[in-house]
Amino acid sequence: MATSLTPEQDRMMALTERITASFSIVGILFIILTYLFSSSFSKPINRLVFYASWGNLGLCIVALISVDGPDAGQNSPLCQFQAFMAQLFLGVDAYWAFCMAINIYLVFFRSYNTRQLRGLDHKYFIACYGLSLIPAIIYLFMETKDRGKIYGGAVLWCWVSRQWDFLRIAVLYVFMWVAVLIAVVIYIMAGRYVWKKRSALDGFLNPFNETPFINVLMTTEVTVTSQDRKPSLPYSQAREVNRSQDDDNYNAYSVNIEIGEPPRPQLPHRPSRPTVFRLPSVTRAVALSQENVESFLYARVAFLFFVALLITWVPSSVNRAYALAHPEHINFGLNFTSAFVFSIQGLLNCLVYMATSKSACRQLWAKMLGRKYDSPRRKEITTYGVGSDLEGQRSRQRLDSDATSVTNLTAR
Question: Alpha-carbon distance 56 to 93, whole Å?
Answer without folding.
Answer: 8
